[in-house]
Amino acid sequence: MVGEQIINVIRKAVGDEDPMEGVTEETNSGMSEADQQLKDRNAIIADITANFALLEKAVANFDARFTLRVLRSLNTLRKRFTSSILADIVKKTFPPSHPAYSSLLSILADGSHADQDVSMDIDAETKAPNVILPEIDVYLHLAVQVYLLDRREYDKGAKFSDDLVKRMHGMNRRTLDSLAAKVYFYYSMFNEYLPGSEPSIGIRAQLLASLRTATLRKDIDTQATIIVLLLRNYLSTSHINQADLLVTHAAFPESAANNLFARYSYYLGRIRAIQLDYSSAHEYLISATRKAPQVSVAAGFVQAANKLNIVVELLMGDIPERSIFRQPMLEKPLRPYLALVRAVRIGELDAFQNTVNSYAEAFKRDGTYTLILRLRQNVIKTGIRMMSIAYSKISLRDICVRLRLDSEESAEYIVAKAIRDGVIEATLNNEKGYMQSKEITDVYATREPQDQFHDRIKFCMQLHNECVTAMRFPMNQHRLELKNAQEARERERELVKEIQSGDRDDDDGDFDGI
């Protein structure tokens, strides 16, 4: 023993190492890596199976909050999904005779991106239960949907989702509402990612049929989700009339989630903006930006809503507040729109046209290019308004030169229209060819302050009503009240029977049940 220690000391001093030492360390490190993979694998399986208990509790208590907890955990778990892990869970959950057993395993086993994971044997004693809750069944199908979407297997995912939606169409359970809404969401996403517009158009019949069924069943989550998906589908192919008809005939549920309501308001604002109803579009877009989550995950939606809202405000003749462009989440994406606002504010057609040409690709990508082209008349009106403030009298020739118009007749027509629309307070002398501005009156002598106060009070009242609507009340409270009322009626019947039989006199009292 002492000799071995002396030999080791001499080897360290000389620099000679034991040749078996590295092999042992490599073996130990390999074993530790395998153990870590096995540990991670068991952890993800335990997390997924733990959601089964929450789904069972949701069914037992008829409480959708447990299902929402399961759906919130899905975004975290999806990063750790593999085909072998999901296959092991399917084997543990479903009996071999179940229809989903073979279908799910064929989906997970097939494909070109097979996972190279550490295999884990399933104990022979572990038997799958004979009765599977539909909620657990749909949850596992939803997990497979998410797995296929993350692996970008769109063709396989579209076919799988189509079969799942047709199967769910016959399920009528209110505890499945939240899960069904997610299934329809991914069903639409798979078809959007397929090349061409035919897949998106092809799913409209199924979505409309599902919307009719969800409305009859009073399935609020699925109903709100499908309406939003249909609006997105129609707008992606520029079918504005169909989208408007859907909004007219399908009432959006007032008790829908905030995220769905924000998306619905955004799509409705886009429809109204295309239909030239800018005031309504502005209200819907403001509602969408205020209801949207102000977190990094929803940054894309917040940016899209603010971009469209800026264009709508410019079309209304207003200038957006500068504070919008200073927000960290919006500062960089809104730079093209800041340049656009500057060009419209100063009322120069050359600056406006140069800005549109410079950022044309960004505007087309955002879907606001056609709306921005309508701003040319607003730029001209702004220029006329600036000149009416700067000059008490100006000739039509000077207006034509400053606004780069073709002729004095065009300038005369534009000035007359601006006066009629109330953009400027001026008079037009056609014989001498000049515009004379009126004296600026006190703004507080007009109706503008009253209109501003009315808009603010209306918004505060609407916000109060929405807060009252969003209040959460105890679940199943009506059932408890019905049970107490039924017990009171039973006690009343017993007392009446006792009085009729002579066992109790009227003077005995104790008529609490009546």
UniProtKB/TrEMBL annotation:
Comp. bias intervals (Acidic residues): 504-514
Record GO cellular component, one term: proteasome regulatory particle, lid subcomplex
Record-linked PROSITE patterns: PCI
Entry-linked InterPro entries: CSN3, PCI_dom, PSMD3_C, TPR_PSMD3_N, WH_DNA-bd_sf
One annotated GO molecular function: enzyme regulator activity
Biased composition (Basic and acidic residues): 491-503
Chain intervals for the UniProt region annotation (Disordered): 491-514
Key words of the record: Proteasome
Domain PCI: start-end pairs: 262-442
Example GO biological process: proteasome-mediated ubiquitin-dependent protein catabolic process
Family named by the database record: Belongs to the proteasome subunit S3 family.
Protein name (database record): PCI domain-containing protein
Species of provenance: Dactylellina haptotyla (strain CBS 200.50)
